[in-house]
User: Fold these one by one.
Assistant:
Number 1:
Amino acid sequence: MNRRARRLACAFVISLGLGACATSPQTRLLLDNPPDLPAHVELTEVPFFPQQQYHCGPAALAGIINYRGIAVVPDEIARLVYIPELKGSLQVEIAAATRQYDLLPVQLDGQLESLLRELAAGNPIFVLQNLAIEAYPIWHYEILIGYDLEQRHMILRSGVNRRITRTFSLFEKTWQRAGHWALAVVDPDSIPATASREAYLAAVIDMEQVGRLSSARQGYASALGRWPDSLLALSGLGNTSYALGDYVAAESAYRAALVIEPGKAELWNNLAYALARLGRRQASLDAIEHALDLDPHNATFQASRRELADWSM
């Protein structure tokens, strides 16, 4: 099966005939070293949409998007993600659809404990499962809405079932067969509890690249709240502010980034444009000269100097 087909989901009739499962490694670690978390969490307020045939992706995503306060029905999402010839939805389309509602799809680290920590923080998780075996997969998207440490099970919205439970061990195995793929879907003014800086900023960059500039700008600002020394977040904040016409904020972000890395010529180039937009002729020319001092043969910076000189006339 090719890579594209491997990533689609899902069958309408779900089978869990997997036989007896030995305790999986992450489950064993979790039970041997219980995390400092509530014993039971269930996000009962997560909406439920029973799936239509092959529409587990749209149904699950609709539940999470509605949980974030945005009214949407699965059919609307299906128009964005469903691929009829594949009878399913690919992960890349799921993430892209999420961004259409100005929400950030942040990929998690594949750790069972991270899922529990996200749930304890109030974040339902969008997961992909393989409910059969690797050779003959049954792909299925679900919403993880809770867990019970004492009963040792996960709680999910799945297919036509508003609530099902699956043991930690079985969940880990079906999740592992799907590459431990999981998304926390959040507003740009928040960050998933366990998200790495790299994963979060990757989600924000993707938001910026599809033109959702205000949401991306908020995402960069959120990142700086947790990682104030992030050069990538400062640069992104500067670029989105510039694109939105907020040249004062752009200048501030670029200067903060240059405090961290004064030798980054691209930042001096971008600062020069922000200063030019603010009508500060000499400061703009000084900034582009600084970029050229650092990288004198860079054709982009040479073109910037010519353009900025014309702007200043």
Number 2:
Amino acid sequence: MAVPLGGRGSAPHRPVLLRETIELLAAERGGLFVDCTVGLGGHSEAILQASRDAQVLGIDRDDEALELARKRLARFGSRFRAVHADFRNITRVLAIAEVKQVRGILADLGVSSLQLDSPSRGFSFRHDAPLDMRMDASAGVETAAELLGRLSEVEIAQIIFEYGEERRSRRIARWIVERRERGEPITTTRNLAGLVERAVGPGKQRRIHPATRTFQALRIAVNSELENLDRFVTDAVDLLEPDGRLAVISFHSLEDRIIKRTLWKLSGRCQCPPRLPRCMCDAHKAVEILTRRPISPAEEEVAGNPRARSAKLRACKKLLITPN
């Protein structure tokens, strides 16, 4: 399950929009499904329970999550397989697995409950921990602390503004760099959360912690979460069998915007500026969009799982015959 960077409280693992996702994937048909962000295996478990003929290939960047998913789904035997990989490399993953087409693909984007609730991973300001935020520590990417120690004030402000949509990004970046120049770099979650809270100010009865947007922005930057997301959607559709389904759950507007525009393009809706004399974006009708508007969690789900509040689910069905 993927969740957004939340507030102060902790929540148990609950797959977001579970019923709606399984219905849109039409998992009762059976066949091979790919869970691109298997996490703790909640969605995969529901797919496998929907039909005895269902199989799941689970992908995740997090080795710890994969191991827990393997244990949770061990009772399904060979119907579940786990692969340590970045879901954006889905074409390569399926080629290695000698799979040409699949019945359905699910991508539940963002940070998982396991990562968010881990006191040592540095994703949340609820625990004082090294400022890490890497989804895959074996990938050799910089930690959030290393990023803040290397980038310029302008670059830090740009990340916080673009990925966190934080209006006080320049002030936050300036304070971070001033601390760094005094020989006091930001190295822990408590350091960063405290600095942002002082820089942003308490505000008027904030619904979320003042540091939420900054933490989100750094996590996106560290893990390159928006990079090639549009390409992933296109690759996923290519890998679906006719009438196969793709479902994507996102947790902030930047992700959702990319998913929406890519699905529109694959449904034949031109994304070019209106003044262009002809379409240059290669829009072609390969899918039928199943969600005219994104599906959001019902009030009851949000009440039981506050982390689900910003989730948006979009889905499409691959056409039986793709027009030339």
